[in-house]
Design a protein that fits this description.
Elements (H helix, E strand, L loop, with lengths): L20 H5 L5 E2 L11 H13 L9 H15 L8 E4 L2 H12 L5 E4 L6 H7 L4 E4 L3 E3 L2 E3 L2 H9 L4 E5 L11 H13 L3 E5 L20 H4 L2 E5 L2 H4 L7 E5 L2 H13 L7 H13 L1 H22 L6 E2 L7 E5 L7 H11 L2 E2 L1 E2 L10 E5 L4 H20 L2
Parallel strand pairs: 1-13, 3-4, 3-7, 7-8, 8-9
Antiparallel strand pairs: 2-10, 5-6, 9-10, 11-12, 12-15, 14-15
This protein binds pyridoxal-5'-phosphate.
C-alpha cells in the first residue's frame, strides 16, 4: 500500500514548484501550493518500470506499439466508460503542445476561438500565439458556484466562432461538468458547426459524488467534431516525463493533425514516458484510489479550516486537486493579496488573475500534498487571517 502521508523533500530536484521559491515568492521559507504537480511519489509500478528501463542502459528510438495503445484504451473504458479504438490515438509530449497543434491545424489566422474564463492560463496563448481571435465566454459565478453561460456562448457561436476549448474538469474553478451541461454544449457545437477541443487532463481526479463524462462519448455527432486531450501526467504525477495523447475519432481530422505533428518534427515519445505510461495504466488503479482518498482528506481539512471564515470562501471542489479560493473579502488589490499570502502567511499560491480578469481577488491552492503539509499550510493561512483581522 502506498504511503501518501509521507513527506518527501523535493528541494534540489530542479522542481519548478520547490526550487524557485525565492524568485517567485521572495523567500525559501514559503510553502509552495501552486503549480499543478503533486508532492507524492508515483506508483511503485511506475518507479519499477522506470528503474528496469533505466538499467537496460540503451535508450534508443522507442515505439508506442499495440500494447501501449491497449493500455490506454482499456484505462479510458474502465475509468470513464468510453470505448475508443487504439487507432484513434495520437501521442504527444503534452496536452498544451497538442492544443497548439490542433489550433494551427483546424483554424486559420483571425478565426474566433472560444474559451470559458477564468481558465488555465496557456489556453490564452494557444489561441493568441497563432493570431487567432480570442473570444471569452466568462463563466457565471452565482451563490459560490460556477456554471456555463449558454446564452452568451450561443451568441459567440452565432458570431462565427470556429472552435472552442473546453476544460473538463475545469481548472481553476474545480467544476466537473454534468451530463446535462455537456449535452447542451454538444448540441450547440453541432448546431453551429464548431470544433470542440476538449482538455480532459484532470479526468481521473474526480471527487465523491461527481462523475467525469468525456464529451465525445455522448453521441456520434459530437464525437465527429471533438478532439479529446488526455494524459496520465496529472493522475500519476508524471508531468516531467512529458506524455499525453489526443483521441480523434474522425479519420480525416486525425490524419490532418498527424500531419501537423510530423511537420513540427514530432514523431515519437521519449523512452521513459512510454514505460511510465504503460505501468501507470496497467498497474496504477489501487494507487489512484489511495490518492483520491488522501485528496478527500485534504479537501475536508481545507473546507473545515475555512468554513465560516469571513475573508476566504472555497469553491466546491468537484474535480482536480486545485482549490479556488475567493479572497475578495480581504479587500486587497491583487498585488497586495499575493504579497500578503507570500510574506505574512508564507504560502505560495497561484495568482487568480493569471487565469483571467475574473480571477481578480482569487487565488488557486494546490492540495496535492501529504496531510501534514496541508495542516501546516492551513495553520499558516488561518493564523495570518487572524493577524489580518487583529490589525484592522
Ligand atoms: C487544464 C490543463 N491542461 C493542460 C495542462 C498541462 O498539460 P501538459 O503538461 O500535458 O501540457 C494542465 C496542467 O496543469 C492543465 O491544468
Amino acid at each position: 500500500m502506498h504511503d501518501f502521508e509521507l513527506v518527501h523533500d523535493r528541494r534540489n530536484t530542479r522542481s519548478v514548484k520547490w526550487d524557485n521559491l525565492k524568485e517567485l515568492y521572495g523567500g525559501e521559507d514559503v510553502l509552495p501550493m501552486w503549480v499543478a504537480d503533486m508532492d507524492f511519489q508515483s506508483p511503485q509500478a511506475v518507479i519499477h518500470a522506470l528503474k528496469d528501463r533505466a538499467e537496460h542502459g540503451i535508450y534508443g528510438y522507442t515505439i508506442t506499439d499495440a500494447a501501449i495503445s491497449k493500455a490506454v484504451s482499456r484505462w479510458v473504458e474502465k475509468r470513464h466508460g468510453w470505448r475508443i479504438k487504439p487507432s484513434f490515438l495520437l501521442y504527444s509530449p503534452g496536452v498544451v503542445t497538442s492544443l497548439h497543434m490542433a489550433v494551427q491545424t483546424f483554424t486559420e489566422p483571425g478565426d474566433k476561438v472560444v474559451i470559458q474564463t477564468p481558465v488555465y492560463t496557456p489556453f490564452y496563448n494557444v489561441v493568441k500565439a497563432h493570431d487567432r481571435t480570442l473570444v471569452e465566454n466568462p463563466l457565471l459565478f452565482e451563490d459560490g458556484t460556477y456554471r456555463m453561460d449558454f446564452a452568451h456562448l450561443e451568441k459567440c457561436f452565432q458570431d462565427g466562432a470556429k472552435a472552442m476549448i473546453l476544460c473538463n474538469p475545469h481548472n481553476p474553478v474545480g467544476r466537473v461538468w454534468t451530463i446535462e451541461e455537456l449535452k447542451q454544449l454538444a448540441d450547440l457545437c453541432v448546431s453551429y458547426d464548431v470544433l470542440l477541443l476538449s482538455d480532459e487532463i484532470h479526468a481521473d481526479l474526480i471527487h465523491e459524488g461527481y462523475t467525469h463524462i468525456p464529451i465525445a462519448s455522448l453521441s456520434e455527432e459530437i464525437s465527429q467534431r471533438t478532439i479529446t486531450f488526455l494524459s496520465p501526467s496529472k493522475t500519476f504525477n508524471l508531468a516531467g516525463l512529458q506524455v499525453s495523447y489526443a483521441v480523434v475519432e474522425q479519420e480525416g481530422m486525425r490524419k490532418q493533425l498527424q500531419e501537423t505533428f510530423s511537420k513540427q518534427g514530432f514523431y515519437m515519445l521519449n523512452t521513459m514516458a512510454v514505460a511510465a505510461l504503460e505501468a501507470a495504466y496497467n498497474d496504477g488503479e489501487e494507487w489512484l484510489q489511495g490518492l483520491l482518498d488522501i485528496l478527500a482528506v485534504n479537501k475536508k481539512l481545507a473546507e473545515e479550516a475555512l468554513a465560516d471564515n469571513p475573508y476566504i470562501s472555497v469553491s466546491p471542489l468537484e474535480g482536480t486537486y486545485l482549490m479556488w479560493l475567493d479572497c475578495r473579502n480581504l479587500n486587497l488589490d491583487q498585488k497586495d493579496l499575493m504579497e500578503f499570502f507570500a510574506k505574512k502567511a508564507k504560502l505560495g499560491f497561484n495568482d487568480g488573475i493569471q487565469f483571467g480578469e475574473a480571477g481578480k481577488g482569487f487565488v488557486r491552492m494546490n492540495i496535492a500534498c501529504p496531510p501534514e503539509t496541508m495542516r501546516e499550510a492551513l495553520k499558516r493561512l488561518t493564523d495570518s487571517l487572524k493577524e489580518f483581522e487583529a490589525a484592522l
